[in-house]
Amino acid sequence: MGQDVTVFDEGWRTRASGSVLVDSWAREVMAALDPDGGRYLDTLRVWFERFPLSSDKQRRALKARLESFTTSDHLGAANELSWYEFMRRANMEASPIPSANAPRPDFKVTNPSEFFVEVSTLNISDADRRELQAGGGVDLNHLETLRRLLLKAAHEKEAQLGYAARENWPCLLVLFDYTFWGGLATDFFRYLATALLGEGRAFAQVPVTLSALVYAERKVLGGRIALSQRRSAIYYNPVARYRLGAGTFAALRQFGLVMSEVEPNSQEDWIWL
């Protein structure tokens, strides 16, 4: 490594304490800096420092995303770090894939099996954000969330899935849910199982290059980052060209062909990362 690249230094904190967007994640963190906000920043700093990037250019790019006051940019980077930590906890050997001109998945996993991972985020929709800003309410609409999820899988991530297919490897798409109703104990994961594998058969609407999909609920509790074990789940595509082995992520609720459900290997509510 050449130049030292750190995140959330005093210069950033000074800027974050000044002019920040009203709906920025940084405003909330700085308002509760002692202790919860500080713990959150320290956690991401430690994860960033041990994230195995091969060049300072890549580290600076990740730093810019983490420090961005735009919430969607920050969450995208934080989710990649969170999922990498989750894979480390599962004793997987994974490494980030260097960016290139053409889109690639985020991670390459080589042990205990070989597959690629693409991490993405379902942010609150523009329509819901405008409604909330106007003082209105937002209806619970699982069908709209499903539509946006399938759009991610079938179109927005098609290039990343294609890269994995050219390598003849499975590809897992991980979606962190930050929609308005995400994380409010609606058990969307069961609706999604029915839609993908039950009566809806929505897996037929996504490319066969998608081997499996993870629906992930991540929260920050007391400044610590955790993944919901109760409401996160993995769904295996029964018609995938390259299959991901069942039980690959045993800490998550598993759904396979015809909605056969396997409970996670622990009954804790949260997986602390």
- Largest β sheet strand count, sense and barrel closure: 8 strands, mixed
How are the strands of the largest sheet arranged? 1-2-3-4-5-8-9-10
Helix and strand content put the structural class at alpha/beta
Q: What is the succession of H and E elements? A: HHHHHEEEHHHEHEEEEEEE
Number of separate structural domains = 1
Distance between the amino and carboxyl termini: 26 Å
Radius of gyration: 19 Å
The share of residues in extended strands comes to 15-25%
Number of helices: 9
Question: How would you describe the shape?
Answer: globular
Instruction: Give the integer mean of the pLDDT values.
Output: 87
Fraction of residues in helix: 25-40%
SS elements, strand count: 11
Low-confidence segments, given as residue ranges, are none
Structure description:
With 273 residues, the chain is α/β, with parallel strands linked by helices. It has one domain. 39% of the residues lie in helices and 19% in strands. It is built from nine helices and eleven strands. It has helices at 10-17, 25-31, 33-50, 56-67, 71-89, 126-133, 142-156, 158-166, 188-197; strands at residues 93-96, 107-111, 115-123, 171-178, 212-216, 218-221, 224-228, 233-236, 253-255, 261-262, 270-272. Strands 1-2-3-4-5-8-9-10 form an eight-stranded mixed beta sheet. A hairpin with a 5-residue loop joins strand 9 (253-255) and strand 10 (261-262). Helix 4 (56-67) packs across helix 5 (71-89).
